[in-house]
Design a protein that fits this description.
14% of the residues lie in helices and 39% in strands. The strands form two sheets. Strands 1-2-3-4 form a four-stranded antiparallel sheet. The chain has a two-stranded antiparallel sheet with strand order 5-6. It has one helix at residues 65-78; strands at 2-8, 14-20, 27-39, 42-46, 49-51, 57-59. The radius of gyration is 18 Å and the shape is extended. The chain has a single domain (2-78), classed as Arylsulfatase, C-terminal domain (2-Layer Sandwich). 5% of the residues are buried. The protein has 97 residues and is mainly β. The chain contains one helix and six strands.
């Protein structure tokens, strides 16, 4: 099985997790709307979930610890780098006067 990650742009970064039978094959399953989250024990994969009336979350997907470790590693490796814009990005430009 091959696992690929497709990061999505937006205010709240998320990714789609695709499962393939082998490298180069079309995905036979996609889990959309996954995120990386920080917990007490470090980063983890947060799968899509829905908040219930009692305030608890109901997960739509579950992955074994070993599977989640592979997904976490691939997601971190492929995560887009944030641009660090400070407002002084053009400071090296010559003064126009």
């Amino acid at each position: 099985m091959e696992i690929t990650i497709e990061w999505r742009d937006g205010k709240y970064p998320s990714f789609n997790l695709n499962l393939h039978s082998k490298e180069g094959a079309d995905a036979f399953m996609s889990i959309k709307g996954c995120r990386l989250a920080d917990g007490k024990k470090g980063k983890f994969v947060s799968y899509p979930s829905r908040k219930q009336d009692d305030g608890k979350y109901w997960n739509h997907v579950w992955g074994s610890e070993k599977f989640n470790d592979v997904v976490l590693k691939k997601a971190i490796e492929g995560q887009p780098k944030k641009e660090n814009k400070t407002g002084f990005d053009d400071i090296d430009d010559p003064i126009p006067f």
